Amino acid sequence: MEFQVAGRELGQVTGVEFQGRKALGCYRLEVAVTFRINEYPKADHGRGLFLGGGDLHFFDVLVGRLTPDTNSTCAVAGRSHPEARFHLSCELDGRRIEAIEEKRSGQGVPARLDLVGIVNEKDGFRTSSLQEHVTISQSDWLATLQGMGYQDYLLIEVPLGPKEESAQLNEAMRQLRDAQNLLMKGYYDQVVATCRKAAEALEKDLGLKKFEKKELDAYFDNQRALDKHDRARFLLRSLQVFCHPSHHADKVSRDITWTRADAVLAMTEAAQLVAWFGNSSGQVGP
Fold this sequence. Notes:
By secondary structure, the protein is α+β, with helices and mostly antiparallel strands. The protein is 36% helix and 34% strand.
């Protein structure tokens, strides 16, 4: 799409790039817009274009306000330098990213930028607006999430921690990260199956004793008998039961369709249990 001033085409957007960056207390989405001016004044002094920001929409729903970087509010394009590059940003939180992930279901992200600019012409300033449509590919969006540091957290923002700090839970952590990547690609049945593997790996990593049938019977007969650690083991066992059909191809399993909500449930519980058992206060022994 093109910028127009007084009915005249000033130029057009030739490129839009998205990048994620870590920020304190939020996720920073950066947008680089390349603009080409194709009409110049007679005098070779160029024309100034001030970009005042705008609104960012994903899936035709408002995501947030795009604000220009302090060093990128103005660019001048002339005959020898017809292109200018502007840098804008938008702050996102976990809830908004989760809403985006729910909507895209492992695919790309259709985006719309409603931009407002001010053009400096010989006879004064004129305002102009532009609406640019672009689709962020799946691979580019996943790279953007990674740049934001979003993959360092899981769903309800359970910190997974750096890989090198989780040696004892290495296999369970690896399965969780695999499940997270599968979730972002929309493979929900594989997410659930991988969460089952994470639960089994957690038992193995920490040497946790599996629940025997007599223990389960005793739990229902006298629920007050179990301490906190045993109750957490019971939760771990319940996660395995929930995820069990994803490992099989029998009639019951074939009748189950795993949705994103199912995958989120499995990942949330798996991540919480890994975090709890991995914490020194949670490790009271098998």
